[in-house]
Design a protein that fits this description.
about 150 residues, seven-stranded mixed beta sheet
Length: about 150
């Protein structure tokens, strides 16, 4: 009989040294990725930036802007090989706990209607659609709308 080791999950603040790993994931999973400058600006603005690591390897990251009693989830990403498992759910739950602990009472985000897996994750977590932004995201042809979702914390 062999023992099956559970993966070691670590959630920690993002640092400049994490950007190569973050950019590698970002460029693989998005057709229109954030730039290194977007992440650097988020760190410089003291946004709540997080790394999700599995067995010491960066497998996800998130950027949350906190203001007054609201939080805005700007980016939540999990490497493709770990998607549609439990990692996105665990990471999202942790981000909600962090935002709540920082005084946020409401969490907002935008998501592409074509991001079916993302929508499913957010809906299962209790997010509700509260609006729509027309032509918000770049697309291969024209632009794609964004659904605005919110979750009371």
């Amino acid at each position: 009989m062999s023992a099956v080791l559970k993966p070691v999950i670590e959630l920690r603040p993002m640092a400049e040294a994490d950007l190569p790993a973050v950019m590698a994931i970002e460029n693989l999973i998005y057709p229109f990725p954030w730039t290194r400058g977007n992440f650097r600006d988020s760190l410089a603005a003291c946004y709540s930036c997080w790394i999700y690591a599995r067995n010491g390897e960066v497998t996800g990251y998130a950027v949350v802007m906190l203001a007054a009693d609201e939080a805005h989830l700007l980016n939540l990403s999990i490497v493709a090989t770990c998607q549609r498992q439990v990692h996105g759910k665990l990471f999202l739950r942790s981000l909600c706990d962090i935002a709540r602990a920082q005084g946020a009472r409401l969490l907002f985000l935008e998501v592409r209607p074509s991001n079916v897996a993302g929508l499913r994750l957010y809906e299962r977590h209790g997010f509700q659609q509260v609006g729509q932004r027309r032509a918000y995201y770049p697309a291969h042809v024209g632009r794609e709308d964004a659904l605005i979702l919110s979750l009371p914390l």
